[in-house]
Structures are given as structure tokens and as C-alpha cells.
Queue: 2 jobs
Job 1
Amino acid sequence: MLVKPDDRVLFLDIDGVLNHFLLDWSIENIFTLCPKAIEAYQAMIEEIKPYVVLSSTWRKFPDHRDHLRKKGIRFSDCTPILNGIRGLEINLWRTTVGHTGRYAILDDDSDFLPDQKPFHVKTQVNRGLQSEHIQRIKELLRP
Ligand SMILES: [Mg+2]
């Protein structure tokens, strides 16, 4: 699915968003995801239907991407890999596809550009996705 310039885009991180430190990481190891976070995330996606772009490190690994799809986490594209500041990767994606519409960045890290900060919804690695984050994403991306 190609993005349109005015689509509402969600840049999605995984670690620290759909998983967190309080989970039992011994079961699924590096593939650990939080069922509660996934459920809340899916409900949010159903409601606001954004164009989802994976910006997480998970995008670099086919088995990680497959695991996300298995868990029902859908995404239409991934940001390019610059191995640098995540904000630059998001900026390059938007420039390359000509995106000028609204967007939100859901991420527990903070390496974003000054003009991206207002659209950054920051989760905490020890809790992951919470209702206040979902509320903020809805404010930013509501149709
Ligand atoms: Mg993260």
C-alpha cells in the first residue's frame, strides 16, 4: 500500500513500546511482546487507522518482522536504515515518499529532530504502551 502525502502516519517502535522490562523474557526471549500492550495497540489502530511505518530495530531482521505479523502487528513500510539518529531515518522516509501530512512517533527513545519533538509520544521501557500514550496518539492522528 503506497502512502499518500496527506496520510496520517504512525512511526512505530517495538522495544519499550510493545514490550517492557516487567515481562518474563525467559519464555520468548528476544521476541517477547506484551499481550496487554498489543491488545491496546490493536484497538487504537482499529479506531484511527493510520498508515503504520516500522521504525524499530525490529525492521532490520526478517524473523522479527515475521513475528510481528504473526502477532497481528501490521505495517505498510519501514524507515530506511542509516544506523544513526532515528529522527533522521524518519525524516528521510518522509522526504523520500513526499509525506506532508500529520504523523506521530511512538518510541521510548528520544533521538528525534527538534521539529519532530511535538509529535513524539514517549513511552517508558519499564512500562511500555499505556493509556495516556494512546490518548496522545489519538489526539495527533484522529481522522
Ligand atoms: Mg525502543
Job 2
Amino acid sequence: MNPQGAVALVTGGATRVGRVIVSVLAAEGVTVAIHYRGSAEEAKSAAAEISAAGGTAAIFQADLTIQEELDALISAVTDRFGPPNILVNSASIYRQVSMDETDRAEWDVNMALHAWAPFRLAQLMVRQLDGSPGKIINLNDAHLARPRRFAYGVSKATLSAVTRSLAGAVGPNVQVNELALGAILPPPDWSEERIQKLTADIPARRWGSPDDVARAIIALIRSDYINAETIHIDGGVTGTRK
Ligand SMILES: NC(=O)c1ccc[n+]([C@@H]2O[C@H](COP(=O)([O-])OP(=O)(O)OC[C@H]3O[C@@H](n4cnc5c(N)ncnc54)[C@H](OP(=O)(O)O)[C@@H]3O)[C@@H](O)[C@H]2O)c1
């Protein structure tokens, strides 16, 4: 697919990794629907920056764990820009909750945001596409077995299954892939010491950047034959442990 003139919905597009993805997509000529939940100011400034650079963007608010808001998102984007043909599922939570502390609410919110919401958005987008070309790219984690972020790991592992099952279900013109990220952007509360400690275990001996992620997304948009894949963007951590 040629990115020029395509319409992309990027969930969690107002901050951090999502923020860079929306800018890079816009610079490639993609019309960008920037989804946010609470970061309204950041979303507005992202859209303004894209417009100032000659691109097209608008912002869309939704809590993706609330069914009605989730269901309304694709049609809101369609009303504004026409049917989206690229979906980047980036919205996420990253809470440290151990196996023992995990209760039904923690389980449900992780599964809702990391598995059900990406699936539901894909389902609604593919229905609208009705056989036309599309790309679905799920942002996953290179580390899925997570004793200290139990529901997070389980829900992201489910996202992997969603990715592959969707890839087989959506028809020949839609490709569904996931990017499995390693150390890209540390959570804001991480100490320098903790960041450095992790760096020592990365074959690349450095953290990646949101640009690395955005460039992989552009490559997946341009390819019409890569499907049901997991591409690790982790500086070699996963590949060197196989
Ligand atoms: N950063 C990394 O190094 C890294 C490593 C591994 C995997 N990943 C994956 O890459 C993706 C992007 O990472 P990130 O660190 O940029 O993500 P993040 O900062 O954890 O979250 C991105 C956005 O998710 C949105 N969000 C949270 N709860 C939501 C809800 N209930 N409904 C709708 N939106 C919600 C937030 O939007 P608002 O601010 O608008 O509320 C937030 O800005 C994630 O899927 C993450 O799992 C990242």
C-alpha cells in the first residue's frame, strides 16, 4: 500500500511512542486520526504540529475499555476522513501488579485494552473495508512472560494470538502484523540506574527509539505480502536467546 493518501487510526497517538508514529505517518502523506484518552492537550498539539507541517490530522477521544466509546471510534474517524485503511493499536497500560495481587478488575482492564480493543477496532475497520486493502499493526512487547506484571503479560500474549488469528481471517487484501518492542522508552518513573542496568543486557548496548518503531510501521504499510508476523524491535534481545 502506498502510504500517500491512506487514512490511519493510531490509538494512544498523543504521547510517547504513539506521538512519534503519528508524526512519521503524516510526513509520509498519511491522513492521521490521533486517538487519545486523557492527553487532550498533547493530542491537540500533535495535530497542530502535523497541520503546520502541511499534513492532515484530527483528534478523537475514547476510553477503549468502555464498549460504547470503543465502538464509536471507527465511525467517528470515517465521518471525518472516510474509512480508515490503516490501524495501529498502540494504547496500553503498564502496571506492576504481581500474580498474587492480580484480581478480576486488573485482569479485565488489561484484556480489554490489549486484546479486545485491538480486535474490535480491527473487526469494525475490516467490515467497512469490505475487501479493500488494509493494514493492521499491533504494538506488542518482546517479553510476554511477566511474573511482576502478570495481567499485562497474559493480555499481550493474547494480542499475539489475536494478530495471527486475524491475519488468517480478514481476507487476502488485509495484512495483520505485530511489532514486539524491547527497550524503546522507559516509563517516566524509571531511575537512570535501572535504565543502564537493562542496557547491559541488550546486544545493541543501547535503547531503541520510537523512530525505529515508526520506520517499521512504514515498511509494513508498504509491504502487501508480510502477514501474521512478529517483528522484534529489541536490539537483538529475543533473537540471541532463541
Ligand atoms: N515504551 C516501550 O519501551 C515499550 C516496550 C514494549 C512494548 N511497548 C508497547 O508499545 C506501545 C506504545 O508504548 P508507550 O510506552 O508509548 O505506551 P504508554 O505510554 O504506556 O501508553 C500509550 C497511551 O495509551 C493510552 N491509554 C491508556 N489507557 C487507555 C484506555 N483505557 N483507553 C484508551 N487509551 C488508553 C494513553 O492515552 P492518554 O495519555 O491519552 O490517556 C497513553 O498515552 C504499547 O502498546 C506498549 O505496550 C512499549
